[in-house]
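Q: Joint fold for the lines below.
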Amino acid sequence: MRTDTIAAIATGLSDSGIGIIRISGPDAFAVIRRIFVKKNGAAPDVTKSHTVQYGFIYVGSNGENAYLAGDDCADPGGDKSKRFPCGEKLDEVLVLVMRGPHSYTGEDTVEIDCHGGVLMMRRILETVLQNGARAAEPGEFTKRAFLNGRIDLSQAEAVIDVINAKNDYALKNSVRQLSGRTSEKIRGLREEILYEIAFIESALDDPEHISLDGYREKLREKLSCMIGQVTSLLDSAEYGRLVSEGIRTVIVGKPNVGKSSLLNVLLGEDRAIVTEIAGTTRDILEEQIQFGDIYLRIVDTAGIRDTEDAVEKIGVARAMDALADADLILYVIDASEALDENDSRIMDMIHGRKAIIVLNKSDLPTTTDSSVITAAAGLQDIPCIAVSAREGTGFDKLRRTVQEMFYEGNVHANDEVLITSLRQKEALSEALESLKKVEESIESGLPEDFYSIDLTDAYTRLGSIIGEAVEDDVVNEIFSRFCMGK
Amino acid sequence: MAVLEENYDIVVVGAGHAGCEAALACARLGLETIMFTVSVDSIALMPCNPNIGGSSKGHLVRELDALGGEMGKNIDKTFIQSRMLNESKGPAVHSLRAQADKQDYSRQMRKTLENTDHLTIRQAEVAQILTEDIVGYCDAATDNTSSGTFYPNDEDPAGNSKERKPQKYRISGVTTVSGAIYHTKAVVLATGTYLRARCIFGDVSTYTGPNGLQAANHLTDSLKSHGIEMYRFKTGTPARVDRRSLDFSKMEEQPGDEYIQPFSFSTDPDSVQKKQISCWLTYTNEKTHEIIRQNLDRSPLFSGEIKGTGPRYCPSIEDKVVKFPDKDRHQIFVEPEGLYTNEMYLSGMSSSLPEDVQHAMYKTVPGLEHVKIVRNAYAIEYDCINSLQLMPSLEFKRIEGLFSGGQFNGSSGYEEAAVQGFMAGVNAAMKVLGREPYVLDRSQAYIGVLIDDLVTKENHEPYRMMTSRAEYRLLLRQDNADLRLRSIGHEIGLVSDEEYERTCEKERQIEEEIRRLERTNIGVSSQVQDFLIRHNSTPLKSGITLAELVKRPELDYIMLNELDENRPDLAKDIIEQVNINIKYDGYIRRQKQQVEQFKKLEKKKLDIDFDYSQIKGLRLEAAQKLNQYKPVSIGQASRISGVSPADISVLLVYFEKFGGNRDM
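A: Joint structure:
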């Protein structure tokens, strides 16, 4: 049975020094041959299983193949066995070649051991995806390993759990990772595409009532606009603005303990609205910040307290949701005030989680200090750091603590985040390809029914980004927009 | 009490387009078949539009013909006008449509049925289905019979049928209203729009089937008592008017095609080139719409009098006016009902408005100012089933040996009915013969798409075939239906060896010619360059194959004759295939790859009695949906709304462990 080739990051996204990218499937070796050159300039040897090779990953200057033997980058002397890379040297790596069925998945498999670091791993994985693999679905490696008999049948339930866990996370994050504006744009774009599909299809189904005369020209204009929109979405994906990656960090605390001020100091700008009125942050703010080579997706939440205010209530509920999904929690306490029942509620929630307690307002006379906190049951292991958002003190220590926790492996971002963002980017590229194909079809005078085939592809791809399936969209759109015959 | 008792291999209930195909298929396979109808004079009746085919429906008819059905042959004998629709568009959406002489259509089909061996036609209303228990208990049956046959009462016997456990039956026969008993091994239900039918216009409603024919009022209760879930659907038809009262000078003439293509692959094209009758086009206008708007309160559709769910694709004129208020006119096609009648059909103006409003509104239409109505427009409500209760073989999941097809399954249209009737008939026959059922999948035929949709997707209106429903439509063209399906028809036993051989030979010639074109190189010569320039095509820089030239949008196979010295003399249909296959090669190959992916999941079979709540790790919603639908394959499961790709992964892993889904 023919399958395709998949790739993903096999290690968690921690900055622990080494990251592994795994490629599995019939084209795994073809992919690595396109992007990897050994130290001595030779192509990787894929004939022997379980060998390790040392060399470099290259990314092509045009975003396509890094190099191809015998073509433009060939040795001017004509030695075709030697491969001369073109494009940019990306990273120094070890490549592990495993021939199927003697691999985790049972298929031909390549593992690239690279320097850890979110950015580097992302770039290498992207290069892999551009060279013939596709982003693995949640739990797909495990599924393949199982279906190829590499995991004992008795492990079926564990395998199902892995698939479910990874998928839940991906589902939650695929949409959440997109900024509100991005989803809105994609939704708008999909509506436009759906309308065109429905128009073409209704004319095909009822040619006597709905005519396609002059439609080509109209569609051509609309297409160039759609292509522009997808291109700009893709551009923003290049710069990481489409999705926010990194450690999902949530700032929580009671109202008016200075959560937003803390975020502002971390960001170095007045991003959140800070007032003296308790309950100002009623929704959730999200920002990406960089501590060295670690990215934090930092989420400021509404203060958690019992409230009657309907709007504030929603904010509190969202804060609780954000808390549940966090990789790291920054729990902010006003050191100048005593703890109350709202604090014990929050403490219950961070129990057993990766968290840092931030004692803010350390410039004021202290009522609550770290000894009071650690006395609270179960929170002894959580570091306590005194800061003053007003005076900007204590933040170096906070940054250091976050970095340490990350390097020690206490905190790590889920690798599904990155693969999800790459899947989304892949889907965008495919949507763009499909739209361009429609343009080509118009140029070359193909009939209209071919347009709707590629438009439907684009529609489906875009839907996968925001987690929407196609179902009976086209048929419903036809009936609601166009008056059919008889 | 003495009653008539007879034995048949197969009972077909209904003699419409579904019933006729079912009965013919069974009898032609040598099984003793009896077909019931409430009126022998209404066999293969066309109670609505006077045509066969049209967009995507034309595909269905050609597929049916390739499999060994009758509809294509019958319309070839009885058409009075023929057109290939969408000719300016791609080959995948070309669609044949023919105007029928309705009475002739009906008469010819009846003649065919009456002269088919093993087929008995009987005029009687079937009142009940008879079943035996397969598993578990049946609290209602025990005190009713000692022979093990369950005769359901008209009334709910224990008053608690809803509480009764899901139960499996095997069909054993039917009874008619007169009490006669017909023992049988399989039943095909094709009751069309007759079950508890009610016709309505204005405040007039009659409990009759189409055209005032007798409705069938008993069978619904018997089906319900077997746990079958029933829906109530609605459809409608426009008025028929007297040709002599129309002014055609105010309408546009719609003639047929110059060259007529037959529907059937067995019909000699030369035999159908004949004089055709025209249709006529006119339009409604603001005056028409005003009259409709003023009388909406008298429309049973809007007053709530009609409760059935109507189809969105063929709305009544009052629906159109309400839903599309911006459209200042709607097209009306005036179509002849036959050669020997003056009745004309007003396509596009179906309605259930009161009689006086109908007269007033029709008279506002140019050409219809002095119209004389022969039959009023009306809406019709009828019982049908929730088709999710069926397997893709069209057998009821819970009643072995009971099959159904056509409007009874919640579809609409003669063609949709015919193909289902055929498949239901074939599979009923397979059951009796102890052979495996035939299920066409979505990559093989529009028939497969239609049936898969019916048995997999929630359906709340009469289902109509549409090209947009077929995801692999470049492969499912009307021109290659024989190449796709003849071999299956032959294997079933309804396509003769001779017909089958002809298709194989055609296939061979197509392949050979494509290979030849791919291998024939054309050098750069002044003759070639002249030719290309003449046809606005880029001149050659170096040699090229003929196949490459066929691919150019501005050229085609026939044009290239000039450059092709060794071209064999090939039939028209072969040339067409060669041209299409080369020209659209890129798209065709892409869809073939998609089909390959699709087939993988389709091959993983599931047990329809499996309880999905057993699978730990399957989401609750998915388990509920799967338990409700009971899909037959993982492929079908993947198309159920609410079942996600991750759920499918879970199913794959689970059944890998328990061996339930080995490739078959």
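Q: Anything notable?
A: The CA atoms of residues 189 and 229 of chain A lie 8 Å apart. The radius of gyration of chain A is 27 Å.
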